[in-house]
Write a structure and sequence with these properties.
Layout: H1 5-22, H2 27-41, H3 48-65, H4 70-75, H5 78-88
Helix pairs in contact: 1-2, 1-5, 2-3
Length: 92
C-alpha cells in the first residue's frame, strides 16, 4: 500500500527532526529521505518554494549517505535542519 502525501511529509519531517535533535543518523535514513522526496516531487500540487526545499533536503541526504562521517555531516547542518523542519509545516 503506497503512502499518502501527508504520510510522506510526516515521515520526512520525523527523520529531519531526529537528525536535528539527536545529531546522528544512518545511511538508510538518508536513502529513505531520497525515496520520499522523489515521490513528493512527482506531486503536481507542490509549489516551487516547497520543491526548492525538497531539492535542498535531497542534496543533504545524498551528501550525508556518501559522507565519511555522517554524524559530523548532520551536526554541520543543524541550522538548515531547523529551517527545513519549520518549513515542512507549510506542506500540509
Amino acid at each position: 500500500m503506497p503512502l499518502q502525501y501527508n504520510d510522506q511529509v510526516n515521515i520526512l519531517k520525523d527523520i529531519l527532526m531526529n537528525h536535528q535533535t539527536d545529531c546522528c543518523g544512518s545511511v538508510s535514513e538518508c536513502e529513505q529521505m531520497e525515496r520520499l522526496i522523489k515521490s513528493l516531487l512527482t506531486n503536481a500540487n507542490i509549489d516551487q518554494s516547497n520543491k526548492s526545499v525538497l531539492e535542498q533536503i535531497y542534496s543533504y541526504s545524498q551528501n550525508g549517505k556518501n559522507s565519511a562521517n555522517l554524524d559530523q555531516h548532520i551536526e554541520s547542518h543543524q541550522q538548515q535542519l531547523s529551517q527545513w523542519v519549520d518549513h515542512m509545516d507549510q506542506f500540509s
